[in-house]
Protein 1
Amino acid sequence: MTSSETGPGTLEAHDVPPPDPELLETSLGHLDDGDWLAGTLKPLGARHAGWGVTPPMYDAVAECLIAAMTELGGDAWTEEMTDAWVQALTAVAGLMLTGAAEVEVEAAS
Ligand code: HEM
């Protein structure tokens, strides 16, 4: 991939429903491993900031992802699953946004 192929207009990396299942699944397997989560998700958030991704976009993506899973899950989808995914995505987005903010602080100093 070249730099001209990246940016907010090109979302190939999220083109599979749900977005980035492998990374999310890997993250879920490391929920008790704060070092792994921070070491992986903060740099990922910093890269996203470089592509122009802003904090409100994380809420929009989480909302769409959960809406898609709710629709696909049908009768098997429960409120508890929604709550668990909101918590997981909030945690992932929080670490990514921390990484994004750290890059901004470095760039400003
Ligand atoms: C749960 C939150 C998110 C996760 C786990 C996630 C994960 C990823 C991953 C693993 C990549 C592949 C590139 C890399 O590893 O450096 C990627 C790329 C990308 N993501 Fe996300 N992402 C998230 C949220 C968002 C949001 C909110 C946006 C903006 C709407 C976004 C936009 C992009 C863009 C533009 C790329 C580069 C795509 C390309 O050029 O092919 N992501 N993301």
Protein 2
Amino acid sequence: MSPKHVSKVGLFSSDPLSRRAQGLEESFRKLGIDAIQVIPWKVSRKGATSKHEISMNGVDLSSLDLLIVLDLGANDIGAFFNRVGLLSALTEMGVRVINSVSSILLMRNKAETMRRLISAGLPVPRTLITESIDDAARFVQTHYPCVLKPITGFGGLGVQLIEREFDIDNIYDYLKFHSQMFGKGAYLLQEYVRSPGFDIRALVLNNEVLATMQRVGGEGITTNIHCGGIPRRNTIDVSELSVKAASSVKGNLVGVDIIPDMEGNLWILELNATPGWAGLQQVTDFDISERIAYEFGQI
Ligand SMILES: Nc1ncnc2c1ncn2[C@@H]1O[C@H](COP(=O)(O)OP(=O)(O)O)[C@@H](O)[C@H]1O
Ligand SMILES: [Mg+2]
């Protein structure tokens, strides 16, 4: 007996022409599943006393069986709340949203992700999250070299190594500048993990590792593909760690960032709720989009 399929899927993304969005659309179509691109700013919500409707180009989005969030794409607080609200509403209206809204919100916040990882007994570098510039400055003085990053960032943006012994005035100026540029008032400071020159990205799909890669190079200390990191095949087994990490935030499709230290210990840096797979595809022998569509296409 062939598995039962969902019949209508939405792909929620601010970049419907991306390879990821196009690849998934095509993969669903090959399975006989109708896939539409849901573009956040084209969605409208209409309310009147006896009627509430969420639609895009005349399509009632509550009729979708499944909505995969490829990116939230919201930097403004207004767009962010609107999109989170849309996804929550569609969930309540019976659409299966992947990743779930609560899971996306957890992974959007590195501090909350870390709390879940720690509760699951997983290894994370020593970290301080604070709004206090005094406490942040103290951490820098006692833990340099350390890494400063925005608590809601992605793509390596604003991830910087503090390696020199700044005098206290410089630390204050530096933290203030970083906050204005990236952090918007909250600091995440983390011990720097000296790696053998690469980190590892694992893509977890429904409690199984679908693909992994090592990333080398990049900009500053970041190896993100966005920052020019180059993918290469990975031979280190990160399966158990990655699956446990993804399930700690109840994610169905999760990008897990892991960094090895010089002794071969593995540390989890963060989890991504809307991971890309262009880099992973370069070092993977099967079509990642097809596997994802197949997995989520079953009821
Ligand atoms: N504590 C750390 N020690 C060493 N390198 C780090 C550390 N934190 C981040 N990096 C490097 O910076 C990259 C981006 O950091 P990450 O926490 O994944 O944030 P982003 O959400 O921007 O990807 C990582 O992939 C890694 O290469
Ligand atoms: Mg990352």
